[in-house]
Specification:
The protein has helices spanning about 5-10, 15-40, 50-75, 75-99. It has one domain. With about 100 residues, it is mainly alpha-helical. Helices cover about 80% and strands about 0% of the residues. Helix 2 runs antiparallel to helix 3 and helix 3 runs antiparallel to helix 4. The longest helix has 25 residues, at about 15-40.
């Protein structure tokens, strides 16, 4: 059975798959991380709940942009996947323990 590292290394050897997988990771993974970030950031202390939601939505656009740039800037698919998994885990943990 292949490990995660071997699987990503095998995908790196297929030059036609690499851009397609990065596009999928940017669209789906970036959306998922942005959604988790928006949900977690709505709990920020502010003057009112509507201000917190507005701020969270504005920061979500920035978060999505950073995710997309990260995915296409990294050298390997494994780093790109970790760049999505780590923020998703942090925002998910924040949501779990904050509520």
């Amino acid at each position: 059975m292949k490990t995660c590292f071997e699987w990503f290394a095998a995908l790196e050897r297929h030059p036609r798959l690499n851009p397609g997988l990065r596009v999928l990771m940017a669209i789906l993974g970036g959306y998922g991380v942005a959604w988790l970030g928006a949900a977690a950031l709505t709990g920020l202390p502010s003057a009112s709940k509507s201000d917190a939601v507005t701020l969270a939505m504005m920061l979500t656009f920035l978060l999505y942009l950073v995710n997309v740039l990260w995915i296409f800037a990294t050298a390997t698919l494994l780093r790109a996947a970790l760049g999505l998994a780590i923020p998703a885990a942090l925002f998910g943990g924040w949501l779990h323990f904050a509520t």
